[in-house]
Specification:
Number of domains: 2
Number of helices: 1
Distance between the termini: 20 Å
Structural class: mainly beta
Oligomer: single chain
Order of helices and strands: EEEHEEEEEEEEEEEEE
Helix content: under 10%
Low-confidence stretches: 1-24
Strand order of the largest sheet: 3-7-4-5-6
Radius of gyration: 17 Å
Amino acid sequence: MLLSALLGAIGSVSVMAQTNVYSLNAVGYINVTVYPGYNIIACPLIASPDNTLNTLLPNTNGQYKKWQVYAYTPTNANPYVLDSGVGSSWNGGGNETINPGQAVWLFNPSNATQTITFVGQVPTGPNTNTLYADSFNLISTAVPASGDIVTNSIMAFSKAVKKDQVYTYIPTNATPYILYSATGNNLSTNWPSGDPILPWVGAGFWYFNAQATNNYWVEDYTVNP
């Protein structure tokens, strides 16, 4: 589902997430379904005043007690940073970000499916997401879109090289990871498993960048009033 189909009117899309855009300034919200256990989520909106956990998932009433958020930075010696919900706060301070283009692991400790809502402005381009060299990167599209990462005109990513890999994650599947591996330097024709699919708005995925230098995923979207 392309983001452009969502803009300009109050409407909804429901696969595992729902997106409503309700103003000409492209301010909207997304409802993200969070399943029991681990999920890879993203917030493709610019929240106010920021995109920290304290803003996006405020734990002031203990509603996220025992929930866990794992942020991942491949250049750090210890790449994972854990924030856990305790009492009426996050024990790591709640300062970790989920900015557009980032993704995090979110652990739902309950046995029930939950819905979280993100509110903010739709990012306009160009939006640049750095894919670190010879590393796994935990990322997502920087705009609220879903579908084929390659041919989607908004998310379009064309800088893959041979041995790049995409791992999408669907927690309800018996085998949650779906692997797409590049066999050549053309993202649109050299993925034998099919072009990588971002299954729903608000989902993240792993990208292994096999290049020796940093790669950049640039998404260019402009709101037309």
